Structures are given as structure tokens and as C-alpha cells.
Amino acid sequence: MFTYIKLRSPLMSVFLLLVVFSSLTLTTELAWSADTIIETAEQAADATIEKKAAPRMGPSDYRQIGSVSSRAFVWVVAQLHLFLAAFVLAVPLFVTVIEWIGVKTGDQRYDDMAHEFMKVSMTAYSLTALFGGTLAFSLFLLYPTFMAYMMEVFGNQVMVYALLFFLESGVLYIYYYSWYALRYGNKKYVHLSLGVLLNGVGTTLLFVANAWATFMMAPSGVDEAGVVTGGIWDIMRGPLWNPLNLHRFVANIAFGGAVVGAYAGYKMLSARTMAQRAHYDWMGYTSNFIAVLAFLPLPFAGYWLMAEIYAYSQQMGITAMGGILAWLFIVQAVLIGTILLAANYYLWNGMSRCEGSKRYTWLIKYIAVTLVGSFLIWVTPHTLILSAKEIADLGGSHHPLLGPFGIMPAKNIAVNLMLIGTFLSFQLYRRSDKEITVAWAGFGNALMAAIYLVAIANVIFLGVYYGYYTNTVYKVGSSVAQVMSTLIVIIAGVTIDTMMFKGAKNLPVTWGKISNRGVYALFALPIAFTWLMALMGYVRSSVRTHWHVYTVIKDNSTDNFIPNIGYAANMMTVATVAFLILILFIFWVASLSETRQAVPVQKSEQ
Amino acid sequence: METMQDEIIKESGGLPIIVKVLSFMLFMILVFTGIANLLPQVEGQAPKDIKVDLGALTMESYIAMGESIFKGKGTCTLCHNNMGRAPDIPVMDMEATALERLKDPQYKGTAKDSESYFRESMIEPSKFIVAGFGKQGETSTMPIIDKAPIELTEVEMGAVIAYLQAKDGGQPTVELPTDAPAVAEKSAASAEPPKPAETAEAVLTKNGCTACHAVLDSPATIGPELKTIGSRLSKEEIRESIINPSAVIAEGFPPIMPPDFANKMIVKELEMVVDFLYQSKAVDSKNSETKEPEKEVSNENDTPKHTETVPEPETDTESNTEQKGE
Fold first, then answer.
1. Enclosing H/E stretch for B182
2. CATH no. for residue B276?
3. From the CA of A418, how many Å to the nearest CA of chain B?
4. Is B304 in CB contact (< 8 Å) with chain A?
5. Residues of chain B numbered 284-303 and touching chain A (CB < 8 Å)
6. Are residues B182 and B211 in the same domain?
């Protein structure tokens, strides 16, 4: 394939990558077209590449820096690279959308806010590249044989990645620095097009790199011995590639929104004028909106990824969800519960900005009780950690009353109710500053209330009846119907509101009128998101157990075991704290550009 | 949006905002870290190579090796359990089941007896799909056992077959491997060496007694302590409590001791353990043969165990598309 690119022109590589990018959303017919192109390219490549089997790794294939564990070193560097990369890829996505909203509404404040978001991410871009380079050097230094095999498999694709990186850098700098040069009239559309191109290249970069991770989890395009049998397209298009692409794409947006939300929160708390406070309050609200909006469909993307993992290897799926890694999902529940509680708390506090919210405040206590109750059910473990005395007192290892809350049907109910509750908070917030004027407002509200009630009843009934009174087959099947109930609430809510808001009267909103305590939710979100990303990355990587490339290259290093969760948590904390320090540096640099030294006063001549 | 005002905000006293914000964030990080560190700490060890001395192999140890592989390296119990992902082999009479399946009209294989059926189902699992399992009922989701990631050798598959044939009282037909040296892989988590242990301490360690009982260096309190058991029970009672642990349950302890040690230990090992435990007496009663009834040994200050328990698989939601396969 890449011999083909080399022979034709650099533009062809861009075209091929756009084909790769497009295939994620288009039909298999288009994928067939890509196959045809790539097949032709592979024929040229086959003539020159000698195919080799995967290496059998021995002690000499691993290196170490002093007494530092190679796995621990790569773990932290890779995690920091991923945090920063997720941030810099996500910010331009929502910045372009906000810029477009500014164009459509003619409100310059959207444009200013979009520019400020970009300013924050610019330093992060350099740091991403630095950590990416450090990660590559670390891998080649510490795992030379493994990396040699990966280069054997992916070949020139890595150079396409490098090319894309150049392209990304170029477009990013032009996009940011031309902001004010291309601000009005038709030039603005040129600028918006640059934004679209930037995101196209950035997303393709993400997908290309994802192929390396998914190849290690579920290799394709190689035989049992690891000999390359297919082209680069066969290697990239593994069973987990698209699910991971979608999951990371959506998660990055939620993560990016949460991080810039913390920036806005800090700037708001340290504002010196009401105007500044109002501006950053609005920016914080927008960031939270982006984070929560992207977060709501994330469980469904995660669901697809896990379903594909099970379909690829039931053994791998069970290792993740029902084996040694199962306890991690209790921590995941704590983190997602924290995110949902913080997001809701912020919305409830934010309702104080608008007098119109008083119509809905009576509902908040019910949502709060539902969220907290569901959260507690979600974090209830099935098997308790007990002493002999406690086991004897309980009459078994499961608590007679709380035991039923430990199993999956109870957690399915809890998660779905939390998502429905969060959407209700979100919907109430959006309605707070509006007085609906359509003639069918009464019917619309009744319909919306009915949809909520039916969905909640359905989620509870399905969970209780099929979860506790039938066998496993129905229990599994009912969870899909529960998820559908939640999705129907979200889709119906957005649709009905959009129709009802036509011609609605806008009520006054006082930005900046939110308690400082409420703003702290904006700091809870990025911390929980960052730690959650680290946790789920650990799970994704650990399901390979003692394989570098699952079923192809065994990990024979001294670190070929799955570490216990305490050790893993400490590693995640090291990475999260390091990321926090880097983010502080990024924010500080962003603020530095606004700081101007006062003109020195000329001393009069003596 | 209301018009923004240029009103100056008065600085509030107390700690600088950056300190407050950072403290809040670090506190949250520590909470997450603390929760993760409070959970059971389990490591997932990779299988390790061990040498199997085929010359010293007996059918009994070969069956034990098969059971160890079934529960360890083979990862069979990951799916073959009571969670409904695959037939629950541990509670099924597999010898009888195999013969029934060979007569089933849906059977597509070439096996003639249970031994060849078991081997075939490990190498070509789609030859017979048990009703209700498999992808669309046509393809088994069971991995091919002699391929990666499990990669059982011929010797190891033979051991599993011997175990499946013998576990419900049947007579293994599989022949003991004798002609070629073999390297078997074994999970460090499972301890079942083919040769008998040489000391009582080794037997206790091999059978995992220290996980629940305070014996040797273990402070465990899930089961009764055994460091002074000789002061409380006679040799016969100790022997009985190993062979048939549910006959008498020590007060204050759950009936969770595995009942299969009689099948796992050879006579020499059992007698070594009985002698060792009987000689383990309390200091003040070493010279006394007085026996007291078993008493609860745990107390209110017992610390919870953080090493053994893992949650029962709770994968139902996530395994929605999971297809069951034998």
C-alpha cells in the first residue's frame, strides 16, 4: 500500500487516509472500494517485503532503565501522552462547533469563547508531541524486539502517521493564528473550513493510532504465527477498531469539555470584575454542557466495545468483566457516580442564575434522592470482604438485605435511573430561561412526563422481574430494553423541547450568579474523568493478560502479570497528579499571554 | 443574557484560590486511590513452565494434574460454571453426558467414545453445540484448546480428559504418557504438582490450607486456627475433619471447607498432615491429652481478608451479545 503511495504522490496518501476515515461511517460498499485500492497497492508492496513470524520473546528482548520497572515507566508516559492527546484532539472539535454557532447566531461572544478554548489547548499540543516522542523512544529502548515486530506489521503506516502529524500541526497553527485575520464575511467560512480540516486530520490521527492498540488486543491481517498475511487495511480493520474509535472519539470530547471547564471555573473564582465572572461562568456552563452531552452516550459506546470484545473472545470478555478485573468496575461505578453527581450539582446550582428556574426547584430533591440511592446501589459489591465473625453474624457472605443490590440487574436499574435523572436536570435547566408559548404546551408537558414515568417504570420492572425471577438469558436480554428506555427519554426529550421552544419567550439569565461551591463541581469533573480514563485504559490493556499481542506474542518479561488494583490505582494517581501539574502549566502559560507589564515610569533627570 | 457589569469583586480572605482548588482536586484523587486500595488485592499471574516427570506419573496424579489444568491454565471454569455461559461441567456427570451426546442426531463429529469425544470437543468444539449455546447455534464460542491463547499440549489435554472421566467415579481410559518428556505450563495460582509432597508443611501449602486457617505462618481466621488443634482434637477427629469437613462444623465458622481433600491427597500426605496437626498443641497442654470441643477463635478485632475474594462474575449486562458455547 505504501509503496503505492510513494510511487504516486503525497496527495494520494491523504486521499487513502480520508478513505479510511470515511469508511467508519459509510457502508461496506465504500469499504470494498477502499479494499480494491489497497489491494492494488499491496501487490506492489508484497514484492519487496519479506514476511517474518512473530518473535518468541526471552529475557534479552527486554531492557530496563536502572531499577525502574519498564512497564511502570511506559505506563506513566503513555498515559500522559493519551491524556494530552485526548485533550488536544477534543478541543478543536467543539471549538469548530461553537465557532459555527457564533456564525449562525451572529453573537461574537461565541467566537471569542471558541478562540479562548483554542488558546488554552495550544501549549498542550506541544506537550502532547513531546510525550509522544518520549513514549516512542521508551518503547524502542525498553521493548526493542516487540517494537521491531510492530514495525514489521505496520510498516510505512507509521510514516503516514508522522505525515498526518505534520499536517495537523500546520493546520492547527494556521487555524489558531488566522482567527482574527479570517473573522468576518466569506473569510469566516474559510476559517471554519480550516477547522473542519483540522478535525478531519486529528480524528484520522486518532484512528490510525487506535489501530496499534486494537491490533495488540485482537490481531488481524496476520496468521497464527504472527506472519503478515494481509495488507495494512486488513491489519487496521480488526474487530475492535471501530468500537474503540467511537468510544475514544466520544470520551475525548467529554474529557476535553471537563478540562476546559476547570479552566473556566478557576478563572471565574479568581475574576476581579463581575463582567469577568459572568464571562467565565458562561464558559464554564458551556464546558459542562459539552462534557455531559458527550458523556451521556458514552456508556452505550462502551457497551458496544465490550460486546465486540465478547464476540471476539468470550474468554477476554469474561477476564474483563467477570474475572480478576471485575473489582475495577466498583471503582468505575464510584467515578461515574461522582461525574453524574457533580454534573447534576452544577446544573442545580446554575439554576439560580435564572428566576424562571423556581418553577422546577421542587423536583430537585426527588432527582437528588434518586441519584444518591442509585449511586449507593451501583457501588454495592456482590461479594463482601468479611472476617469469619462477620460471615457468621451475617449467616453467609452475602448480606440478606443488601445482597440483592450487588448483582447486575440492580446496577442496571441504578445506572439507567441515574442517566434519566441527569437528563431531567439538564432538561429543567434548559427550560429555566424560557417561557413556552406554543398552543400545545400543556399536551407537550404531559407527554414528556408520561414518557419519563413509563420509562422509569419500564426500567424498574424489567430489572426486577427479569433480573430476579427468570433465568440468565432473559436477564441479559432485558438490559437492552432498559437502555432503549433511557435512550427514548433522551431522544424524545430533545425532540419535544426543540419543538416546544419555537417562539418561546426568553427569561433573563444573570451569568455569574452561581455559588462558588457550585463551581467546585467543575473541578470534580476533570479529576474524575482523568482517573476514569486511566482506569479503563488499564482494563483495556490488561485483558491481553500475558500477551503483548494477544495469541501472537507472549509477554515473557518480569512484568507479565496483571498487577493488583492497589498498585494500578497508585500508578493512575501518579499519572493523574502529573497531568494536573501539566494542565496547571498549560493554564498558566495561557494566562501569561494576557499579562502585560506596566510601562516603566521614566525617572526625571536629576 | 443580562448586560455584564464592571463591578469590582471584593477579594475574600482565607487561602488563595489556587490552594483551595488544588487541595480539593488532590483530595478527590486520594479518595479514589484509597477506595481502590481497600478492595481485594489480587494479581493475575501468567502461566509458568514446569517440568513434568512422565516416568513418575501415576493415573492419580495425572487426574489431579488434569483438574489443576481445568481450573488453572486451561481457564475452563471461566465459562464452564454456574453462570450459564457454557455447560456447567463441574456439576455434570461428563462421562454419561459424553455418551448421550454421541447418540444425538445433531452430533457431527467422528468420536466413538468419551475419550475421543472430549479430545474432539477441545480441538473442534463446533462438532457438537449443546442446545442453547453457540453463535446462532452453529459455531461454538469455545476457544480451540491447543491453540493460543490457551495452548494446551497433548499431555495436558490427556490429563484434562482423565479428570473429566474420573471426576464422577468413572475409570479413565486415557493412557499415561510415558514415551516423551513434556513441558507443561501451569498457573502459579494453581498448586498441584504431580509428585507427592515430602513434608506436612508442603501438603498444607499445596492444598491452600493457609488461606483460611491460622497454621504455619498464616494468621488467617476464616476457618478455625490449627496451631493448637492437637490440644482440642484427637488424631481420628483431625482425619475426619479433613476427609469429611461437613461432619462437624466448628462453632462460629461457615461450612465452606472444600469436601474434596480426600480425592486430592494421597494416603501418605494425609497421614503426614494428621500427625503434624496432632503434634500442634497449645503450650500449656503439650503434655496433656485432654481434648476440648472446637471453639470459635475469631474475635471482634479480626481484620477483613483482602486477598482471596473476587466478586462473582457480574457480566450479564456487558455480555449481552455473548453467545454460549461448549
1. strand B182-187
2. 2.60.40.420
3. 16
4. yes
5. 296, 298-300, 302-303
6. no
Dihedral angle sign, alpha carbons of residues A37, A40, A44, A46: positive
Q: What total number of domains does chain A contain?
A: 1
Contact between chains at B32 and A564 (C-beta distance less than 8 A): no
Q: Give the structural domain span for A26.
A: 2-46
Q: What is the Cα–Cα distance from A495 to A493, expressed in whole angstroms?
A: 5
User: How many angstroms separate the CA of residue B321 from the nearest CA in chain A?
Assistant: 6
The answer to the question of residue B303 being in a domain is: no
Residue of A nearest to B225 (CA): A388
> At B99, is the secondary structure helix, strand, or coil?
helix
Alpha helices, DSSP H only, in A433-555? 441-461, 467-468, 472-500, 516-519, 521-542
A278, A511 contact by CB (below 8 A): yes
C-alpha cell at A242: 471501530
A600, amino acid identity: P
Q: Which residue is listed with cell 412526563?
A: A449
Rounded to 5°, angle at Cα B248 from B244 and B253: 110
Whether B75 is covered by a domain: the verdict is yes
Q: Count of residues for chain B?
A: 326
**Domain-embedded: residue A28:** yes
User: Domain limits at B106?
Assistant: 47-187
Of A314, A391, A562, the CB nearest to B254: A391
B48 Cβ partners below 8 Å, 6+ apart?
B185, B186, B187, B188
Over the stretch A102-153, which tens digit does the pLDDT of each residue have?
999 999 999 999 999 999 899 899 999 999 999 999 999 999 999 999 999 9
By Cβ distance, the residue of A318, A326, A509 closest to B2 is A509
Are residues B250 and B278 both part of a single domain? yes
Residues of chain A with pLDDT > 90, as a percent, come to 72
Cell numbers for A132:
509522544
Test B311 with A327 for CB contact under 8 angstroms.
Answer: yes
Do B303 and A387 form a contact (C-beta atoms < 8 A)?
yes
pTM check: above 0.95: no
Report the amino acid identity of residue A101.
Answer: I
Here the cell at position B319 is 455480555
Instruction: Determine whether the interchain pair A569/B6 forms a contact, defined as Cβ–Cβ distance below 8 Å.
Output: no
In-domain check, residue A239? no
Q: Which residues of A touch B78 (CB under 8 A)?
A: 315, 318-319, 322-323
- Split at pLDDT 50, 70, 90, the class of A27 is very low
Query: Which of A302, A404, A250 shows the shortest CA–CA distance to B318?
Result: A302
Measured on CA atoms in the order A122, A123, A129, A131, is the torsion positive or negative? negative
Residue B9: how many CB atoms within 10 A of its CB? Answer: 14
Question: Is there a domain that residue B26 lies in?
Answer: no
Instruction: Tell me if A36 is assigned to some domain.
Output: yes
- Give the closest-approach CA distance of A464 to chain B in angstroms: 14
Total domains present in chain B: 2
Residues A159, A105 contacting (CB under 8 angstroms): no
Stretch (H or E) spanning B48: strand B47-52
Judge whether A7 lies within some domain: yes
Q: What is the Rg, in whole angstroms, of the alpha carbon atoms belonging to chain B? A: 27
Contact B43 A561 (CB under 8 A): yes
Which of the two residues, A180 and B196, has the higher pLDDT score? A180
Q: In this structure, are B169 and B227 located in the same domain?
A: no
Distance in angstroms (rounded) separating the CA atoms of residues A556 and A521: 44
**Length, in residues, of chain A:** 606
Distance CA A393, CA B254 (A): 10
Shortest Cα distance, chain A CAs vs residue B325, angstroms: 9
Per the domain annotation, does B295 fall within a domain?
A: no
Amino acid at A471: N
Q: Which of residues 73-112 of B touch A (CB under 8 A)?
A: 75, 78-79, 83-85
Nearest chain B residue to A226, by CA: B148
Average pLDDT over residues A468-485: 76
List CB contacts (< 8 A) between B132 and chain A. Answer: 473
